[in-house]
Amino acid sequence: MAADLACYNIADLRLRAQRRLPHGVWEYLERGVEDEAAMARNRAAFDAVTFRPRVLRGVHAIDTRTTIFGRESPLPLALAPTGAAGLLWHEGDLALARAAAEAGLPFTISSASTIDVEQIAAAGGRQWFQLYLWEDRALSHAVLERAWQSGCEALFVTLDMSVPPNREYIHRNGFGTPFRLNARNTLDVLTHPRWLAGVMGRYALSGGIPSQANLPDRLRASVTKGAHPGALFKLDNLDWEEMRALRDRWPGKLVLKGILHPADAEEAVRLGADGIVVSNHGGRALDSAIAPLAALPDIRSAVSDRLTLFLDSGIRRGSDVVKALAQGADAVLVGRAPLYGLSAAGQPGVTRALSLLAEELRRTMALLGTRSLAEIDLELIG
Ligand SMILES: Cc1cc2nc3c(=O)[nH]c(=O)nc-3n(C[C@H](O)[C@H](O)[C@H](O)COP(=O)(O)O)c2cc1C
User: Which partner from 154, 268, 301, 336 sits 20 to 30 angstroms from 87, CA to CA?
Assistant: First the structure.
């Protein structure tokens, strides 16, 4: 299936995804916020970087392996947490997790997944858990315990969504939560029969559209109903003190996601975090946020090598991975790239997205004369 997908880069998968999904669902996957300036800035930051390659280095054996949290990884790359993958493909979270496991890459389970943490963890491979906190904090603590018991190695706490982001397109498209058919979205859904049958139809046969799968049964809403009181995410009262309490509670690796300021990165070190993700949420939170790639050098000098530095937001090519590593990242996360593959073709589509990025990374390294990740540094940029 993946081999006959005539998709030769992430942009091809993106086009396929756009064709297959109803417009409202597509915009949920693709769009940023407000004027989408942050999204544009994320790409512009990568596009502005050029390399000064070295030659005659004997690049017949390229080694892309690295160590993340003390364990070997075949690539400096992991799948970012992305909620509602189940809207893009039937049981999309499972397809992502299985493709990641097959590729030997870590997968980050989203708090907002449509399949519960135990079932996703059963897909195998190396898994991390991303946390948004529910208003009733006891619910979050219970889910953390379940994530730990299920074998999740790291906890990623997302910090850049203290209030809901300004997604104007949701109102325009009539695709809000709770989801209901209305004058604005019915035609959109009906004109995408493959999605309607393949995603919604299959859920309908198995008892309804799932949502908030990580909540206990009694509090679980469906995408078509609303959330129960206390079972809504509440992040505007989160502070460093609560983060210290989470550090004490979580026995595994702790990663703070959504850091852009060097002072916050230093605070993360003081807290005892094992990593941070330099991220602007793929341009989906604060529209005037700095591009993570531009924020990276100052953050790297602030933290030195005291924690693992991940970067995400805007990665669409293997060469982008090299650019992030050259400027100080230890590894990157990818959000939309695997989701384009998922929406285009399910698990084989995710596999295709990951292998395209891996191939491009290897080719870029060879053309740069770098045989291992350790040889990627600022000297290559010019
Ligand atoms: C459809 C979608 C859903 C997302 N859901 C979550 C989420 O539940 N939790 C989270 O921390 N980040 C979420 N993100 C942000 C990603 O983890 C990541 O930061 C971002 O996608 C990286 O940018 P990129 O898409 O350009 O690779 C989501 C992103 C997308 C595109």
Answer: 154
Contact of 128 with 108, CB cutoff 8 Å: yes
Amino acid at 333: L
What pLDDT digit, counting tens, does each position of 83-132 carry? 989 999 999 999 999 999 999 999 999 999 999 999 999 999 999 999 99
**In contact, 232 and 135? CB cutoff 8 Å:** yes
Domain boundaries, the chain: 10-169+227-380
Assigned token pair, 246: 């989470």
- How much is the pTM? 0.96
Q: Does domain 10-169+227-380 have CATH number 1.20.140.10?
A: no
Closest-CA residue, ligand 1 atom 6, reads 82
Query: Distance between alpha carbon 40 and the CA centroid of its chain, in Å?
Result: 18
pLDDT confidence of residue 179: 65
Check if the beta carbon of residue 206 is closer than 8 Å to that of residue 114: no
DSSP 304: T
Atom of ligand 1 nearest to the CA of 277: 19
Q: Is the separation of the CB atoms in 75 and 316 below 8 Å?
A: no
Q: Please report where in the chains the tokens 């086009």 appear, as a residue.
A: 15
Using 70 as the pLDDT threshold, list the residues of the chain that sit under it: 1-4, 176-179, 217-218, 221-227, 229
Distance 379 CA to ligand 1 centre (A): 31
